[in-house]
Amino acid sequence: MLVRGASRLAIAVGISPLVVGLTVVAFGTSAPELAVSVEAALKDDPAIAIGNVVGSNIFNILVIMGASALITPLAVTQQLIRVEIPLMIAASLVTWGLAASGVIGRVEGSALFLALVIYTLWAVVQSRKETEAIQQQYAQSLGTEVNTGETKHFDIRVTATHLLCIVAGLALLVTGSNFLVKGAVGLATAWGVSSAVIGLTIVAGGTSLPEVATSLMAAIRGEKDIAIGNVVGSNLFNLMCVLGGAAMVSPTGLAVAPSFLRLDFPIMVLVAAVCLPIVWTGRRVSRGEGILLLAAYGIYVAFLLRDL
């Protein structure tokens, strides 16, 4: 429902499907990460808040992008290669640098959040500048039509239907994810697993379920822009809004455990950086590369759980 509503709403309002994937869909499916990390920050559990963001970003690229590529090779647009993926790498590096001091404070959190607002406004403005020919081509692939005359008719009932699909899809995804996280965290706590490992694995994977469902359905439906845009956009949202928002509401800032700086932040940056050469070769993510991404995540989780 979310993919269908978002892709058709993009055509209706003249915003490219890629930007919808990078913003509306990505931000919406990252709502569980935001809720969990903010709640953890308010309860003074920074390991869950930080682990959720770092683990989700690693999970998004290695698992979601990898699994989506297994369904169908993901064609990558020039905009992703030139702008969004380098921006994701830069945001990962900046966040690692902020964490190096041992605390991500309110000022740093506010700066991250402001950066997201600026990026979102820029992405929407740039999208509106796209040629009508591109919009028409994508509309035809969806089996819809776009008026090519100077006057476009706004159908409020059709638009309301698209919005209803988006809201209903998001509500169902977020609700299901929250149920899974609550049960998984309860089990993991009972088994004596650390907060950092819980955040990096169970919480990160659980809150990323909306991204899993959305990107896989987008890949199945042939909405490749939304499938890969959702991953990159979610990672940007996690770093700038989720981590930034959690730092903003935390009374003393988010204390960064040494284990995050030794292992998890470097891996998050490495995984983000690996995206660029993958998409640069052939401008797509192939099925073989998808298998390698999934295997890499299995190795990472096995390393985290090695002492259990």
Keywords:
308 residues; mainly alpha; A middle domain of Talin 1; two-stranded antiparallel ribbon; two-stranded antiparallel sheet
Description:
The chain has 308 residues and is mostly helical. The chain has a single domain (2-304), classed as A middle domain of Talin 1. It is built from 13 helices and four strands. The protein has helices spanning 2-13, 17-29, 31-42, 46-71, 78-99, 106-128, 132-142, 156-190, 195-207, 209-220, 224-249, 258-280, 287-304, and strands at 74-75, 103-104, 254-255, 284-285. 49% of the residues are buried.
Draw up the topology in text:
Blueprint: H1 2-13, H2 17-29, H3 31-42, H4 46-71, E1 74-75, H5 78-99, E2 103-104, H6 106-128, H7 132-142, H8 156-190, H9 195-207, H10 209-220, H11 224-249, E3 254-255, H12 258-280, E4 284-285, H13 287-304
Antiparallel strand pairs: 1-4, 2-3
Number of helices: 13
- Which H/E pattern describes the elements? HHHHEHEHHHHHHEHEH
Care to count the β-strands?
A: 4
Reported by name, the CATH topology is A middle domain of Talin 1
Kindly estimate the percentage of residues that lie in beta strands according to DSSP: under 5%
Tell me the CATH architecture.
Up-down Bundle
Low-confidence stretches: 146-151
Q: What is the end-to-end distance?
A: 40 Å
Task: Label the overall shape.
Answer: globular
The main sheet comes to:
2 strands, antiparallel
